[in-house]
Specification:
Helix content: 25-40%
Number of domains: 1
Number of helices: 6
Family: Belongs to the methyltransferase superfamily. L-isoaspartyl/D-aspartyl protein methyltransferase family.
Order of helices and strands: HHEEHEHEHEEHEEE
Number of strands: 9
CATH architecture: 3-Layer(aba) Sandwich
Function: Catalyzes the methyl esterification of L-isoaspartyl residues in peptides and proteins that result from spontaneous decomposition of normal L-aspartyl and L-asparaginyl residues. It plays a role in the repair and/or degradation of damaged proteins.
Radius of gyration: 16 Å
CATH class: Alpha Beta
Largest sheet: 7 strands, mixed
Distance between the termini: 30 Å
Structural class: alpha/beta
Organism: Allosediminivita pacifica
EC number: 2.1.1.77
Shape: globular
Strand content: 25-35%
Bound molecules: S-adenosyl-L-homocysteine
Pfam families: PCMT
Amino acid sequence: MTFDADAKMQLLFALRSKGVTNKTVLEAMEKIDRGAFIQGYFSDRAYEDTPLPIPCGQTISQPSVVALMTEALDLSPRDKVLEVGTGSGYQAAVLSQLARRIYTVDRFSRLVRDARAVFERLGLSNITAFTADGSFGLPDQAPFDRILVTAAAEDPPGPLLAQLKIGGIMVVPVGQSDTVQHLIRVTRREDGFHYDDLRAVRFVPLVEGLGKD
Ligand code: SAH
């Protein structure tokens, strides 16, 4: 799983210049070719540190934000992770390098289908993708050690909080889509939920129900 050496250097340089220093996260991002997740017009910009359009009016997140969210999850190799918002599948692929099992869901079946094909092509066999409204989590697979939401909710969805193990961590952008959102880390302890504000971000909104495509 290697991709063009110059492109890789360009992306890693961009990440380092944005202050991404976590070695295991950088190694995971070095292994996963972002170009495999972007088709068509924007594919030649895959190694820039910028969000890009993907089908169904959605976006693949900016690599430095993928790095920040991955780092904030503080993954361990035995973790079972839920990602809400498969999109292109890139973030799930990065997570797959650092945890045991990744469940990822998107409300658009087209995105899930495309992402599954890329996971298969790259041999990422520890990711399972479903079409579902992720605001309800995945009750059949719960509880999770880590939950990552890659679409902005007004508040961390209750069913997701309920599906987080004690000792678990959830990272979620919170706020309305047309205003500044904040990336929040929720840690569940015996005595309840603890919240840290990580930084301002901009994500597409978490939308209820399944998409048309
Ligand atoms: N993690 C993605 C980027 C996600 S963009 C990547 O690496 O490319 C946000 C995604 O969240 C979109 O694909 C959108 O369809 C999805 N989404 C929005 N609301 C959702 C919901 N309620 N359930 C599941 N997916 C949702």
